[in-house]
């Protein structure tokens, strides 16, 4: 597995060029299967995928506990670059995320709870999952910086913030990475001012949902294949009105991937890797066969011409539907 670095300078950290998003092992994409999840984590480790991404919000801590048990049982802590997040809080009655809390008083409590669930004494990369615009980011990052001083966290990150917020945060303490949705389907979030800001400041982009929540992998043929428990049924790009148009774009990706000699997922991930050494995709999966396919994308080595053909095959204006439901969209970009 090739490696890339998060951040810049002496404080930068090496990670696998392809990471592993672990959310789906516990929530969002149909029923969880803990045994298959552990097999997937085992295979990822065998393939050199060292960068694992979780959050306290995934299954209300269940995903952190899963990763923690796996690291302990397999003796893998030293092999893992561990990222988790805080800031999304759940309503006790409904179980739904109803609050974004990035207040300085909440930061240490959230971190300690994650450390306990993960069974570790240090988190390698700690993100604010979303930002509460009522809390100055300088105050949030100041509290996060105290975790670094205490040895509980090694590197700091933010997720789905604006370029101005990123600048203000970085002025308080170096930010190693910003996590953003980035794929052939979702380019406007990163490309432009945000990417220019990251490169000016030496901040890496961790690309989540790099396969368009699985659609770019080319395996989904219709909305009917999604179970009732699958959150994608409630996301606009998978709606009955939009999914047909988006699958037509995936058909073009599949056609180009066949010409290149890779799978559609590998083409989509290879395209992201070709956008710069400071881009690290973290495709999520809970299946061994998909982690094998995704890890192999690190070796695709697309040419500039191939990458441009893939970009042209998915015009931004042709993607149908917003990337999140309206309520979730309101939490982004602060």
Overview of this protein structure:
This protein has 334 residues and is of the alpha/beta class. Helix content is 37%, strand content 16%. Helix 5 runs parallel beside helix 6. The longest helix has 18 residues, at 243-260. This is Aldo/keto reductase. GO terms for molecular function: oxidoreductase activity. InterPro entries: Aldo-Keto_reductase (IPR050791), NAD(P)_OxRdtase_dom_sf (IPR036812), NADP_OxRdtase_dom (IPR023210). Keywords: Oxidoreductase.
User: In terms of per-residue confidence, which ranges show pLDDT below 50 for 5 or more consecutive residues?
Assistant: none
Beta-strand level of the residues, as a percent range? 15-25%
Number of DSSP helical runs: 11
Mean pLDDT: 95
Classified in CATH, the superfamily is NADP-dependent oxidoreductase domain
User: How do the helices and strands follow one another from N- to C-terminus?
Assistant: EEEHEHEEEHEHEHEHEHHEHHH
Tags for this entry?
about 325 residues, alpha/beta, TIM Barrel, 12 strands
Q: What is the topological layout?
A:
Blueprint: E1 3-6, E2 13-16, E3 20-21, H1 34-46, E4 51-53, H2 62-74, E5 81-86, E6 88-90, E7 97-100, H3 106-118, E8 123-128, H4 137-149, E9 153-159, H5 163-172, E10 175-181, H6 193-201, E11 204-208, H7 243-260, H8 264-273, E12 279-281, H9 288-296, H10 304-313, H11 326-329
Parallel strand pairs: 3-4, 4-5, 5-8, 8-9, 9-10, 10-11, 11-12
Antiparallel strand pairs: 1-2, 6-7
Helix pairs in contact: 1-2, 1-9, 4-5, 5-6, 7-8, 7-10, 8-10
